[in-house]
Design brief:
mainly alpha; 263 residues; globular; single chain
Amino acid sequence: MINKNPQNVPQDGFGKILLMFAWPALWFTFLIYIVGRQFIPAGGTTPTWVIMGITVLGTGAELVAGLVLLRREGYRLTVSALRDRIRWRWPKGWKASGLALIVFILGMSLSMMMGPVNRSLASVPGFVPPEWWPAGSNPTIPVKGTADVFPDISLKGNFLFVIFYFIVGLVFNIFGEEIYYRGYLLPRMHGVFGKWDWVANGVFFTLKHVYQRWMYPGILVGGLSFAFAFGPLGSLPLAMLFHWVGNFLFQMVFLVMAALGVG
């Protein structure tokens, strides 16, 4: 369990920490509500290519920012040079592995329980998603199958799309967010929040998703799980695994089934 800052990582003040969470929120809001909105037909839903483009530009900016900022700290951008700084290792010992399994099971269980909570929040004024918001993260739209999530994509036999979706999700969403928010930023929050830096990271990560605030309950569960995996458990790969399973495992299973023409 890691409860201190053994790598002597430079520490940020409270104001800078807020700024480091605020700029991605503003960037995503701009991409979604200003740029992306121009490509959504009146009375229609968001095209899949717009969703993918926003993901690449949004989380891609976080990935680049994380790597550039780590380089500015003086690290070469290699696994060997960054290993200790970004905690690129798996938990060691049966106690840490057991705790990781407990956190994973608890996180997944709570995340599934947040579905009704998300739907309730999505009916509260100020938290209602736009009518054009995609079904994949819109609790107000019933999803009966993969075709409801990707209504403009012909999925049967379309393994190229499955591979593309997997790469975009892994490289940009998972690597981008985890390297920036956990690998780079969380260790720099220790000076302000002490042993509760992982809690603050999870909460600020949730609030950063203001552009889809109706999903706050589910995002909070995930954000705290990812931050705990990186913070107290000291493992960025574990945080990435938690994040990928929570965001993409079931989607990938159903996508592959749809491409095979099953279900």
